[in-house]
Amino acid sequence: MNKKLEDLSSGSIVFIDSNLLIYEFSSHPKYGVSSRNFLEKVEKMELLGVTSVTVLDEVLYKSMLIELSKKEDINVSEASVELRENPEKIQKLDTSITNSKELLEMPIHVLGVTQNIFASSIENIKRYNLRPHDAAIVETLNFYGIENIATNDPDFDSVDWLHVFKPRKREDSPKSGP
């Protein structure tokens, strides 16, 4: 059974994965509200939020792709190619840049990732069947003694000591009847 973000006890330390921040920034139709409510608790310091520079980098980059895809009516993978081939389009991406600057003003502690943490994370790739980025997050949490992660990534479910808290899917609006 998955735990939901609202199940986190007040005062808990929780690692914030990129997808929750992206859901909030992009007003995701299914997970945006739940992610926003969670982040409000972090802003009020009811929860102690932590993350890593790699997560912040991923949030900024994916937010830029989403913003460009909306502005140019293309899909996100096309936006990636478009930015690579036309880097001057970055100048038009004000929202994602602003959101990332605002994120840095939130009371979220950015954990340092050392060479030793990265070296230890390599074992997590096979131990938990994780991609390198997620394996590095797991080892960072292990190093700092953090057991809670706020994410919608099912890959973290394989880590037996980790408590995974997921956003609640927005319920479909009730249909109005005749």
CATH architecture label name = 3-Layer(aba) Sandwich
CATH topology term: Rossmann fold
Reported for the largest beta sheet, the result is: 6 strands, parallel
Structural domain tally? 1
**H/E topology pattern:** EEHHEHHHEHHEE
CATH superfamily: 5'-nuclease
Mean pLDDT: 93
**Distance between termini?**
38 Å
Q: At the first level of CATH, what is the class?
A: Alpha Beta
Task: State the low-pLDDT regions, or none.
Answer: 172-178
Shape: globular
Total DSSP E strands: 6
Strand order of the largest sheet: 1-6-5-2-3-4
Helix content: 40-55%
Beta content comes to 5-15%
**Rounded radius of gyration (Å):** 17 Å
Structural class given helices, strands, pairing?
alpha/beta
Number of helices: 7
What would you note in describing this structure?
It is a single chain. This protein has 178 residues and is α/β, with parallel strands linked by helices. The protein has a single domain (5-55, 94-167), classed as 5'-nuclease (Rossmann fold, 3-Layer(aba) Sandwich), CATH 3.40.50. It is built from 7 helices and 6 strands. The chain has helices at residues 18-25, 32-43, 53-72, 76-85, 94-105, 115-128, 132-144; strands at 3-4, 13-16, 48-52, 108-111, 148-150, 163-166. A 6-stranded parallel β-sheet has the order 1-6-5-2-3-4. The longest helix is centred in the middle third of the chain and has 20 residues, at 53-72. It is globular and about 45 Å long. 34% of the residues are buried.
